[in-house]
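Please check this:
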Amino acid sequence: MLPNALQTSATDHVPVLPEEVRELLAVEPGETVVDATFGAGGHAALLAADLGDRGKLIAIDRDPGARTYFERLAKRTPVQTRFLRGDFAVVLEQLAQNGVEADAILLDLGVSSMQIDRPDRGFSYAVDAPLDMRMDPSADVTAAGIVNEAAERDLTTIFRRYGEERYAKQIARAIVRRRKQQRFERTSDLVETIKGAIPAPARFGDGHPAKRVFQALRIAVNDELGSLESALPSAFAMLRPGGRLAVISFHSLEDRIVKRFMRDLERGCECPPDFPVCVCGKEPQLRSTSRKAIRPSARETAANPRASSARLRVGVKI
């Protein structure tokens, strides 16, 4: 059973791997915690409960809608709180440059339930909505802009690289052909085109036929992988010795970046293997809490199917 601070309504975000995050971040009273992807505040509420009345919570989110959830949490927790709106890569870099230190930092990647469940945001292929997908509604790039303006070759690259879509080329070609007649404005327009571009047998099994293209567009619109690669070094720089960094990813592209980053910090010596002694002098800077990513239990995925693809990696700064 989760603490009262984590009880949510049916419309709120259900935090993924909450018990594992709480155990591995091991927040103690008086520490400083940074939730760099605050969302609806599920994880932050859990961690704030462990800070007692002497800790500090810094919340970051690029979505202005997160502020409402933050204000709710701030009213019911005794800890010192601060909300910073912006891309976590930018905000974490600024905090690191200003000498802000933290004991625990959490990155819960991808799109939150509060965004998916609002049809007007255009993240879901399951409902008809404007083709938007911006996590920050004030940003310039939208999914409609990419779909209507990008060259066929660029669309193919986006679908293949970010969505690992087998039929990327066929889908890109169908999009270009359709937009010559009519621009894409709605998610349903795109879903219909995707379905028509792939072979009939491929439309059944392995989930919705549009899920990989929608994932790819969302990543491209929000530059999610670029933000992650920029944010990780800043987050690590902010950690005090013994500080913990936890990252929850939802697809292999994100997890690969996190895994490589942590492995590089764990490695230490970079001398060629045939050197008899180390001459580079590089020491390990991080210790992972487990060699493999932590996955949700069957009980959690049954209660929250959206957690099924989650992977958690945690590293401790040496």
In short: The mean pLDDT is 92. The chain has two domains: 4-114+224-317, 124-222. The first helix runs from residue 18 to 25. The longest strand covers residues 239-249.
